[in-house]
Write a structure and sequence with these properties.
Number of strands: 0
Helix content: 55-70%
Mean pLDDT: 85
Number of helices: 6
Shape: extended
Distance between the termini: 83 Å
Length: 187
């Protein structure tokens, strides 16, 4: 009899879990086209989190871990899905082996495909901010640390990684932002 009760409660849990997943998917499908509204909501959550950190003067480690995670996600957002340096090495190997001919005029148009799409970047940013805000509610995560060192270290880390990313973008001539449709002179 206990086995049947366990199976019934387990199947009820599966039904509720499935309903929650479907509701979550419907919400994500609904909000996907509303890019500006999504980012405004995320910025509001970020402002609430930052205000909490500044007002209570604590949870600097949580804030630092959150900032490092966002920096990592931002770099993945700026990086192409297929690394051009690896693609160039493959092309150079095929030219040296004599299997292909390359001219300077053989550049074909390749659209920029991100390693981390905008929607995933938004979703991970929002979820990580909510998790960081949640962690800032518990004193176990309030580890005492001299916060100016964390700020200086994050600024240095940001500058070094962005410098490397910009050099990579210049070297392989790609631009991770769509500047819109080209407009020609009006007639």
């Amino acid at each position: 009899m206990d086995f049947e009760e366990d199976q019934t409660s387990s199947s009820q849990f599966d039904v509720y879990r499935h309903r929650a997943e479907v509701t979550y998917r419907k919400f994500l499908d609904y909000i996907t086209p509303h890019i500006i509204a999504r980012w405004i909501a995320t910025y509001v959550i970020i402002i609430i989190f930052m205000a909490r950190i500044l007002v209570v003067e604590g949870w600097y480690i949580v804030c630092y871990a959150w900032a490092i995670f966002l920096l990592n996600m931002f770099l993945r957002f700026l990086t192409p899905k297929i690394d051009p340096s690896i693609e160039q090495d493959i092309q150079n190997d095929s030219v040296e082996a004599g299997t292909g001919k390359m001219d300077e005029n053989d550049e074909e148009f390749k659209p920029f495909i991100r390693r981390l799409p905008e929607f995933r970047f938004w979703l991970k940013t929002t979820v990580s901010t909510v998790v960081a805000l949640f962690c800032s509610l518990f004193s176990v995560f309030d580890i005492p640390v001299f916060w100016p060192i964390l700020v200086v270290y994050f600024i240095i880390l940001f500058m070094v990684t962005m410098r490397r990313q910009i050099q990579h973008m210049i070297k392989y001539r790609y631009l991770p932002f769509d500047l819109g449709k080209t407009k020609y002179g009006s007639k």
